[in-house]
Amino acid sequence: LAKTTQPISMDSYEGQEVNITCSHNNIATNDYITWYQQFPSQGPRFIIQGYKTKVTNEVASLFIPADRKSSTLSLPRVSLSDTAVYYCLVTGGGNKLTFGTGTQLKVEL
Amino acid sequence: DTAVSQTPKYLVTQMGNDKSIKCEQNLGHDTMYWYKQDSKKFLKIMFSYNNKELIINETVPNRFSPKSPDKAHLNLHINSLELGDSAVYFCASSRLIGTGMNTEAFFGQGTRLTVV
Fold this sequence. Notes:
The complex is a heterodimer. Chain A is mainly beta. Chain A is about 0% helix and about 50% strand. Chain A is built from no helices and 9 strands. Chain A is globular, with a radius of gyration of 13 Å. Chain A starts with 8 loop residues before the first strand and ends with a strand. In chain B, about 0% of the residues lie in helices and about 55% in strands. In chain B, the strands form 2 sheets. In chain B, strands 2, 4, 5, 6, 9, 10 and 11 form a 7-stranded mixed sheet that branches. Chain B has a 4-stranded antiparallel sheet with strand order 1-3-8-7, with no helix packed on it. Chain B is an all-beta fold. Chain B contains no helices and 11 strands. In chain B, strand 7 (about 65-70) and strand 8 (about 75-80) form a beta hairpin. Chain B is globular. Classes of the chains: A mainly beta, B mainly beta. The interface of A and B includes residues 34, 44 and 89 of A.
């Protein structure tokens, strides 16, 4: 199973763009990169998933370089409500989601 | 309408007791899971059921027994509760698909279990 490494915490201010990078050096050909968000006292929530290049949805963008050994979750113009833990997962099909330590994002005024 | 609902939300009980946590999903998914999140916030899968059959069983004490009466329900029964069982337990559901793209999992709100 490909292991992921991401910063333990990040701080930002409202209105800024936040980029959280995740490294997954052992990613396999069939693996996808998936990000989840978890607010305090809630279950994780799917944000975005990608295989290569760039994926964008209404919440975030995901940038994946050609070698796929890392990925960057980009949150445009964060607000206080984006304060949460963000998990980067490498998922190779099947249904076993392996969560790492996540990145605690704190957004301040 | 809550997609994945679990009850109770909070559970405080004494060591040695037996307790159950219930989970229901109304998304029409055929796969359900139990995850445990400890005090350090690590989320670890415990069990997964597909169409009422156990497909993932991580190294979990046999005091923990999941039961799936139908594919919309996955309950977790815990016997002889210990202090170390204190954690937040999350139920989740998803579709089961083949290799390649991982399917999105939907999580419940969690059950905070405190064993005293």
